[in-house]
Amino acid sequence: FVFVCLCLFFSFCSFVSLFLCLFVVLFLSPCLLCFVVLYFCFRLFGFFLLMFQLQLFRSLLFHPLLFRSHKYSFLTKPHPRLAHTHSHNKYKQRHSSCSHFFSFPFSSSSSSTLFAVNDYTKSNNTTAMPIPDGIEPGVLVGKDVLTVLKWAQDNEFALPAVNCTTTSTVNAVLEAARESKSPVMLQVSHGGAQFFAGKGLDNSDHKASIAGSVSFALHVRLMAQHYGVPVIVHSDHCAKKLLPWLDGMLEADEKYYKEHGVPLFSSHMIDLSAEDMDYNIDTSAQYFERFAKVDLLLEVELGITGGEEDGVNNKGVDNAALYSQPEDIWKCYQKLSAISPAFTIAAAFGNVHGVYKPGNVKLSPEILGTAQKYVKEQLKCDSDKPVLFVFHGGSGSEPEKIKTALENGVIKMNIDTDTQWAYWDGVRAFEKEFHGYLQGQIGNPEGEDKPNKKKYDPRVWLRKAEQSMIERTQRAFKDLNSVNTL
C-alpha cells in the first residue's frame, strides 16, 4: 500500500513538472532556448524520481518481512554454500584486512570453567546440523574454534588435521575441504616448517622453522578465504627440546594480535608426554596463560604416541605409556580449565605414528569413553562428553576404531603418513605412465626430435601429486563423517 501511494505521488510530481515547464514558457518567457533548458531540467528531475521508485520497489520486494512465509522466499535466502554467513560484505571486510577482533573471556578470571555454546539437538551420524551462526570461510580463531570443535563433537564428526610441508600441499588440503564441503585443520611440524622455509636456510636456534611456520600460517590465511571453507591453523608436536620453536611462533602470534586483533595461528600443540606428568601439565599451563591473552587454543598430549615422527622417536617405550589414565586426564582438565576453556587433549589409547599393517597396533578408543565418564562425575555436569579429545596417529586406522573414537568425543584426527604417500604416489603413477617422455628434454616414443616440456613441467607432475593427495584427504573427510557439514 505504501509503495503504491509513493509511486502515485512521484508520478503526479512528474506531470506537475511538465505543466510547470509549459506554464513558464507560455506566460513568463517565450524564448525557445529557455523552454529547452527548463524541459531537460524537469525531465532530469523526473529521471531521479524514477530511479528512486525503482530502488524503493527493490527494497520492498526483497524485504524479509514481506517474504518470510511467501512462496518466493528463496529470493531472500543465501546460497546453501554461504548459508552460514551473515553478510558477504562483512565476510570480505573481515578477511581482506584480517583485523576482526573476537571478544571472548579467555582469562583466568572467567567465572565458568566449562565451555558453553548454543544447545544443539543431537542429530544422527549421517546428517550433521547446519554450521553454527557466525562461522565464516577463512581462518578461525578464539571462540569460533571452540564453537566448531564442540559442534563437531555434538554431531559425532571430526576434522582431519593434515600436516603440510609446502604451499602445494596446503592448496591440496584446502581443495579437498572445499570439495568435501567441510571445515578442516591444517598443521605444520617443526621439520615441515623448516622445509617450508627452505632446507638451504640455517636452522640454528630454530630460526628456519620459525620463519617457515610464519610463512605457512600467512599462506593459509591468504588462501583459505578463496577456497571458501572454515580453517583452523595449527602447529603440531612440540617436544621439550623444541619449545624455543614454540616461543618464536608465539611471538609472531602476539605481534599479529597487536596489529590485527587476532593471533596468526588458531592453535598450538605442546607435547611433553615423554616428561614427568606434573611437569607436562604445569609447563603446559604456564604457556596456556600466555595463549589465553591472544585467543589461542592449546592442545596437550597425555600418554605417548608410539612410533617415530619428525625426528621424535618413541619406539620401544613402555606399552603402559601408550594408554592414558582417567585420573591424569582429569588432573590436566582441572588445571587448564581454570585458565580458559580453549584446550583439547590428545589422550593416548594405543596410537602409533607411521604406517603399519592392520592388527599390528591395538587401538582402544573405549578408554576415551571411560575418561569422559570420570571427568563428568568429577564435574557433576550434564554433558556426557566434557573433554574435547584428539586422535593422533590416524593414518591406517581401522574405520570401526575411528567410529568408536568419534562416539567418545574425538573432534580432530591427525593425518600425515597416508597423505605423504598419496602425494608421492601421484608422481610415481605419472612417471610410470610417461616414462619414455621423461628421460630428456627432447626425444620420446613419438619421435627423436619431439620436445617433452609438457610432461616435465613441474606444474604438470606436481598437480598429479596434489590430485592424489586430494583424493586421499577426501577419504579422510568421509571416514570422519564430516562430508557435507557446510
Range of strand content? 5-15%
Class from helix and strand fractions: alpha/beta
Largest sheet: 9 strands, parallel
Q: What is the percent of helical residues?
A: 40-55%
Task: Catalogue the unreliable spans.
Answer: 62-128, 313-318
Name the helix and strand elements from N-terminus to C-terminus, one letter apiece. Answer: HHHEHEHEHHEHEHEEEHEHEHEHEEHH
Characterize the overall form: extended
The beta-strand count equals 13
**Radius of gyration computed on alpha carbons:** 30 Å
Q: Mean pLDDT across all residues, rounded?
A: 81
Straight-line distance between termini:
40 Å
DSSP summary: helix tally? 15
Question: Can you tell me about this structure?
Answer:
- The protein has 486 residues and is α/β, with parallel strands linked by helices.
- Helix content is 48%, strand content 11%.
- The chain is built from 15 helices and 13 strands.
- It has helices spanning 2-28, 32-61, 88-97, 143-154, 167-180, 190-197, 207-227, 243-260, 277-292, 326-337, 366-379, 399-407, 417-433, 453-456, 458-479; strands spanning 138-139, 159-163, 184-188, 230-235, 267-270, 297-302, 308-309, 312-313, 343-347, 389-391, 410-415, 442-444, 447-451.
- The strands form three sheets. Strands 1, 2, 3, 4, 5, 6, 9, 10 and 11 form a nine-stranded parallel sheet that branches. It has a two-stranded antiparallel ribbon with strand order 7-8.
- Strand 7 and strand 8 form a beta hairpin.
- Helix 5 crosses helix 15, helix 7 (207-227) crosses helix 8 (243-260) and helix 9 (277-292) packs parallel to helix 10.
- The longest helix has 30 residues, at 32-61.
